[in-house]
Amino acid sequence: MMDFKVLEKRFRSVEATEIGPKLQEAYIQEIVAFLKADGCFIIQERDEWTATIQFSNTTKQNSPQINPAQLYDLTQSSPFFFDPDFTPRRALKSFLSPYKQLAGYRLNNYTFKGWILVGWSQPTNEALDDIEDALYRFSDKVLVSSLSLQRIALEQQYRFLFGIVPQAIVLINEDEETSWVNQAAIELLNLEPGELRPSPADLSVGMMQLRNKALNIDEINQTAARFIHDPNFSIKEWIWTFDDKILSVLTRPIFSPYFKGRIWLFNDVMELYKKNLQLSDAYREIENLISVIAHDLKSPLSTLSFVFSFLPMTGPLNDEQTENIEYGQKTIKRGLNLIDSIVYFNRLITSNQPVNRENIELADLIHVIVDGFTAQAYQKDIKLHVQHAGHPVILYTDPESLVRILDNLISNALKFSPFGRNVYVQTDMREQGLVIAVRDEGPGISTEDQEKLFKRFQRLSAQPTNNESTSGLGLSIVKALTEKLGATIEVDSTENVGTTFKLVFPAEYVKFVDNVNADNQEAL
């Protein structure tokens, strides 16, 4: 009977002296000696069709591609098998042909799937129960060693990947009170060179020293204070400013069954910041140039308009002359409107002045706006409809900006709607706030056009239906004003059906008026 205490003692001796792949090879030597066998193979199943030899005590040779089905035939339903009269077939012959008897054990763990095979060139006298017990004990060592090798391989990959990235990365394991950093973090936090696992105390000192050097330390401390009250606090693009660099800091907690901690990522965006300043300066110069050009164009256009207005006073004009003057005046008006839009948009996006909010009764404001489009709608036989939410609403917003937004949206709906259709202005409440929708029955907006809808000076495939003019700035102004008001804008469009623009105001800007009776729908 085998003395398994001897086997375990040999295994412990191996574990004390070997690591990595050498440990697995040493295990194999011990099990071969203990079973008085001649060969041992550890085979890993790669997939349904392929298995390969991972370790062996025999002479190194090219590892054949093994069909796992042949090994399944040997083990069948039991994890252990013993064949006293073994005859290998097909691919197994290349490495098992020297053996007259063969024992095996199936490994079926989530970290390793495969087989242990042990062969004897002459019949063995060992009891089958002892062979099975020895292979069972050996299988535990194989699985643990395999898991250790996988961990080492993963750690080496992580070391390589994180070592070459320029960002400084800090990973803190709060349960084990351990940390891990990459080379960039060592340099940034002035840690011990080459120490990828600094102590929590050293890491804390390095983080604190870095923070104390920041020029905006007060702002940083205000944000950092939130960690005390909220362990789940997460932030990205947290700016730390220094004399020689600008760090964009990301930090967030990590929770899993195996890890509880936090990750920090420090990215030096100094070059990006400089480029952004340069682009901002160039952008401001362009905007100023546009404003100057637009302003300078306004004067000659106004002079031309005055001249056209003065011409009828010089004497009688024939019909052709009168028509040309009217056409000229319309062209000048379109040019002046475009200039006004350009100047307004430039002032809108460059001004940092806050909007002037006040409480307004929304229904009354919408009626006033819609009434202003009655004549334009009449010219195209379009019916304007106003539909209100169930209760009168008070909206806390800037009325001038809201009027401009709705003017643009309703004007566009009328311009792009065919004759004899309907345009709806609707208000409704949804869970996240108030919705003001402008819906038309026009041609709709294609998917390609929707991608450039709010960009300046964009010409879309759909065209006004009565030769109306369009500057290409209206929806850009709508987008900019909507953001200033703290709202969002949504677009829902189906080609040949119509388009709906929705302004969504957060619930905190809205309150209801009680005890006021209002018609739920009106047609103008």
UniProtKB/TrEMBL annotation:
The keyword Transmembrane does not apply. It catalyses: ATP + protein L-histidine = ADP + protein N-phospho-L-histidine. The keyword Transferase applies. InterPro entries: BphY/WalK/GraS-like (IPR050351), HATPase_C_sf (IPR036890), HATPase_dom (IPR003594), His_kinase_dom (IPR005467), HisK_dim/P_dom (IPR003661), HisK_dim/P_sf (IPR036097), PAS (IPR000014), PAS-like_dom_sf (IPR035965). Gene3D superfamilies: 1.10.287.130, Histidine kinase-like ATPase, C-terminal domain. One of its GO terms (biological process) is cellular response to phosphate starvation. Its EC number is 2.7.13.3. GO terms for molecular function: phosphoprotein phosphatase activity; phosphorelay sensor kinase activity. One of its GO terms (cellular component) is plasma membrane. Residues 292-509 form the Histidine kinase domain. PROSITE patterns: HIS_KIN. Keywords: Kinase, Membrane, Phosphoprotein, Transferase, Two-component regulatory system. This is histidine kinase. It comes from Spirosoma terrae.
